[in-house]
Amino acid sequence: MALPEQCDVVVIGGGPAGSVAASQLAMAGFSVVLVEKEKHPRLTVGESIIPQFWRFADLIGATAAIESEGFIPKAGGLALWRGALRQLKFSDFGYSRPGLHVERDCFDFLLLERTRANGVHVFEQTAVTRIDGYLDAPVVRYRTRDNEPGEIRASYVIDASGQSAVLARQLGIREYDPDIRFMSLWGYYEGGRYLTVEGEVQPFARRREIPPATVTSTIGDWGWVWHIVLREKVSVGIVLTPETLQAFKAVRDTPEAKFQGLVAGSPIVGELLQDARFQGEMFGIRDYAYKPVQLAVGNCYLAGDAAAFVDPINSAGVVFGMFAGFAAAWSIAESLRKPARRDELRGRYCKIYGDRLALFRLLGLPPDAKGVGMAIEAAADAVNMTGASEQRLMLLQAVLNSRAEGIETVLDRFGLSKQVVSRTIPVPKLAA
Predict the structure, then answer these.
(1) Which residues on neighbouring strands pair with residue 175, listed in sequence order?
(2) Of 12, 50, 257, 390, which shows the fewest CB atoms inside 10 Å?
């Protein structure tokens, strides 16, 4: 099927943000075209998802497909940070449905297929090259997999193109975050052991009957490692600070061997993987954190990683992308119905989304970062706009590790303390 020449909304990107946005708009009766440069399923990191995502799965009708897929449920997370093991249990916040450990290629594919079922015209292997007329009459220019050029005229565009950040790169508004200059390396293991949310040690073979927890632990003063049990393998990644990256480079060995050495020496995670087998391939991305200069430009909205990316330490990336897609779709739908309110609605989107970005950035900032004061004000606004249970969960995510130095002020604003929202449990004995 050929791409149409015109529609109400073009969505760029078929990840969680794009799928939620496109589905929501199509279900509201608008004509929507989604273009994705790759062919799904495609490899993507970010396999730990907190339970707020069910709200958006319900919204677009994807819940049944996700439930039937048999992803590994998780009851919460554990973080070993500077000697203390802190626990997060979703049941403490009234959540009756679990978080999940998912293979993102499969999870994203399910969402995209649901988007098709919801009436969105989906075109994969179609790369957007430029957006003209973005202030009031967007023209999306693209190339197909056969390298044929084309264009679509739309009333609005949602750029959910992920790290490609089509519009932000075009306009020069993608700004790397100097305070979060980390490098991430990740790979996959087979077997080993895992921890439950109660801190109990279990063999990998029991992952389907006894839910695992997402485990993170510190490396050095500011880096960290993750351990996520999937259906057939374990996702393991390391976040390196500039200092630990230099030490990593100084070791004379293959990158894969150096990665395995860092993993083996990491607290808790190294011990859990003592009898596991590395699958042999390592992936990486450097200086991945960037912050937005603008979240919407004229009739074009930026959502998900196309707008900003902070740090995956609180497992909120997928949910945050879904929220951004939902908020962008709502604002655009209202703007299409009530054109006179366009500027007001765009401003509301930027405020709501910007405040949440500030909160998640605050969670990852080192103590010597600049601009913490302004981030605290915006973060407090973001927390204030959520329900009581989600407020407490957001704040607990903030104190699960001790990186978020500025979060104390936000906690004080809500009459809470680390002791109220956080629970420390004994570090399990992991000797083989």
Answers:
(1) 291
(2) 257
Q: How far apart are CA 7 and CA 153, in angstroms?
A: 7
**259 contacts: CB under 8 Å, gap ≥ 6:** 185, 187, 238, 282
Question: Are 295 and 165 spatial neighbours (Cβ–Cβ below 8 Å)?
Answer: no
| Alpha carbon 311 to its chain's center | 8
Query: What burial class does residue 149 get, using C-beta atoms within 10 Å of its C-beta: 0-12 exposed, 13-18 middle, 19+ buried?
Result: exposed
Determine the straight-line distance between the first and last CA of the chain, rounded to whole angstroms.
Answer: 58
CA distances from 286 to 104, 127, 184, 254, 295 (A): 20, 23, 6, 18, 23
CB 87 within 8 A of CB 76: yes
Q: Whole-angstrom Cα distance, residue 413 to residue 42?
A: 42
Q: Do residues 399 and 407 lie in contact, with contact meaning Cβ atoms separated by under 8 Å?
A: yes
Task: Kindly calculate the radius of gyration of the chain based on its CA atoms and give it in whole angstroms.
Answer: 21
Bridge partner residues of 130 (DSSP): 141
Helix (H, G, I), strand (E, B) or coil at 179: coil
Average pLDDT per 10 consecutive residues for the chain, totaling 432 residues: 94 97 98 97 88 94 98 93 84 87 97 98 97 96 95 98 91 76 88 96 96 90 88 94 81 91 93 96 76 88 83 72 94 98 96 79 59 52 52 55 53 53 78 62
Please answer whether residues 308 and 262 qualify as being in contact, where contact means their C-beta atoms are separated by less than 8 angstroms.
Answer: no
* Residue 132, CA distances (Å) to 147, 155, 336 in order: 19, 12, 20
Distance CA(102)–CA(231), nearest Å, equals 8
Angle between helix 104-117 and helix 16-27 axes, rounded to 10 deg:
10
Asked if 57 contacts 48 with a C-beta cutoff of 8 angstroms, the reply is no
Which of 413, 186, 216 lies closest to 314, judged by CA? 216
* Residues 19 and 115: beta-carbon distance below 8 Å: yes
